[in-house]
């Protein structure tokens, strides 16, 4: 039997085609399926596997079949005033809802210098950085926030109240890769612990999580029953609360423990809230000058003197950018446990599995 942690490489087109086929077979329109596949495969390529195919695609399929996530949502623009808008996602796939909302934000920013769109009644939207590309290619600063099901306590608490509530901000550059800060407000994304547990790992680093009684734990199973910890203690907890205010209270979506869990409550709609913003750099000065000056900053940051034992200084988003480039060249690694889960999903949905697709791809690209 293969080692559960052993990995094999899958070319991005193989993963993308598989994802599209699975989604269209459960009723998602082809254009929307392509969009979601872009999000999931790009997450895997960048090493953000907690938001990739293995963890999320089976859950998406279950919720789509149950009807708690709508394959064809009735998204509505509730109101638009000045540079702001409020939209209802109709319980659609978060990537579809978020793409539409960010598109509105960009259009508002073209006319007003800034666009701010609040979203209610959405669902899990993958990586927040996925949506920033819409703003960055228009030479705009992009911002994406979302709340999430509760799995993190307030500082000093032992029961989950807030989600890991990620926030993401990206800045356009000229010669350098865009600067993208994409972070959860927890020490670690809960999905990373899920993947470690599924892969059979017996321990997680100290300081990541507490068990159900509020005691520090290095057992991934106990951590999943307990809670992940906020990054920086009260600072991370404060950020999580701020994101939940913006994405839950302001938007009219659910907040805190009132958000439906993506995995355990498949019979109820999630009603997640998001907030998207676009800022047109050209309203403050020439976009080219901004991007050139940011390129200079990036190079200066990289060239700063390093602490002992540090081989290289990275700017936000650079690690993910380089991983994505490597994945595009060499393929995306997937554990044997992950491959097996995808094969089982393919059988349930009625599409060709990853292994047969890989074999066909290799035959077609044999030299």
Question: What's the short version?
Answer:
43% of the residues lie in helices and 16% in strands.
Structure in words:
This protein is an alpha+beta fold. The chain starts with 6 loop residues before the first strand and ends with a helix. A hairpin with a 2-residue loop joins strand 2 (76-81) and strand 3. It has a 7-stranded mixed beta sheet, sandwiched between helices. The protein has a 3-stranded antiparallel beta sheet with strand order 9-8-10. Strands 1-12 form a two-stranded antiparallel ribbon. The chain has 2 domains: 7-66 and 331-364, Orthogonal Bundle (Hypothetical Oxidoreductase Yiak, Chain: A, domain 1); 76-186 and 230-287, Ribosomal Protein S8, Chain: A, domain 1, CATH 3.30.1370. The longest helix is centred in the first third of the chain and has 19 residues, at 94-112. Helix content is 43%, strand content 16%. It contains 12 helices and 12 strands. The relative contact order is 0.17. The protein has helices spanning 12-25, 30-45, 53-66, 94-112, 129-136, 190-198, 220-225, 234-249, 287-302, 318-330, 336-349, 354-364, and strands spanning 7-10, 76-81, 84-88, 114-122, 140-146, 167-171, 179-183, 209-210, 216-217, 227-228, 272-280, 332-335. Helix 1 (12-25) packs antiparallel against helix 2, helix 3 (53-66) runs parallel beside helix 11 and helix 4 (94-112) runs parallel beside helix 5.
């Amino acid at each position: 039997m293969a080692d559960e942690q052993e990995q094999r490489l899958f070319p991005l087109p193989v993963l993308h085609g598989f994802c599209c086929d699975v989604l269209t077979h459960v009723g998602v329109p082809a254009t929307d399926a392509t969009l979601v596949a872009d999000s999931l495969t790009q997450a895997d390529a960048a090493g953000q596997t907690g938001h990739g195919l293995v963890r999320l695609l089976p859950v998406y399929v279950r919720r789509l079949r149950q009807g708690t996530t709508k394959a064809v949502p009735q998204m509505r623009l509730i109101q638009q005033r000045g540079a702001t808008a409020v939209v209802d996602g109709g319980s659609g796939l978060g990537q579809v809802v978020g793409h539409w909302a960010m598109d509105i934000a960009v259009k508002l920013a073209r006319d007003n210098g800034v666009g701010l769109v609040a979203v209610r009644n959405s669902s899990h939207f993958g990586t927040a950085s996925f949506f920033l590309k819409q703003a960055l290619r228009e030479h705009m600063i992009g911002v994406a926030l979302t709340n999430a099901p509760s799995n993190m306590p307030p500082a000093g608490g032992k029961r989950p109240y807030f989600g890991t509530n990620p926030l993401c901000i990206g800045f356009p550059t000229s010669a350098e890769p865009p600067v993208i800060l994409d972070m959860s407000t927890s020490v670690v994304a809960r999905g990373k612990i899920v993947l470690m547990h599924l892969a059979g790992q017996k321990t997680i680093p100290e300081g990541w999580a507490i068990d159900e009684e509020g005691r520090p734990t290095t057992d991934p199973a106990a951590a999943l029953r307990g809670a992940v910890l906020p990054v920086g203690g009260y600072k991370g907890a404060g950020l999580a609360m701020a994101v939940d205010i913006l994405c839950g209270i302001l938007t009219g979506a659910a907040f805190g423990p009132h958000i439906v869990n993506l995995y355990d409550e498949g019979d109820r709609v999630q009603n997640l809230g998001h907030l998207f913003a676009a800022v047109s750099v050209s309203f403050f000065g020439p976009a080219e000058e901004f991007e050139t000056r940011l390129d200079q900053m990036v190079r200066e940051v990289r060239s700063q003197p390093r602490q002992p034992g540090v081989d290289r200084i990275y700017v936000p988003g650079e690690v993910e950018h380089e991983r994505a480039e490597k994945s595009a060249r060499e393929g995306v690694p997937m554990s044997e446990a992950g491959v097996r889960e995808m094969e089982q999903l393919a059988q349930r949905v009625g599409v060709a599995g990853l292994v047969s697709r890989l074999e066909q791809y290799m035959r077609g690209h044999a030299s």
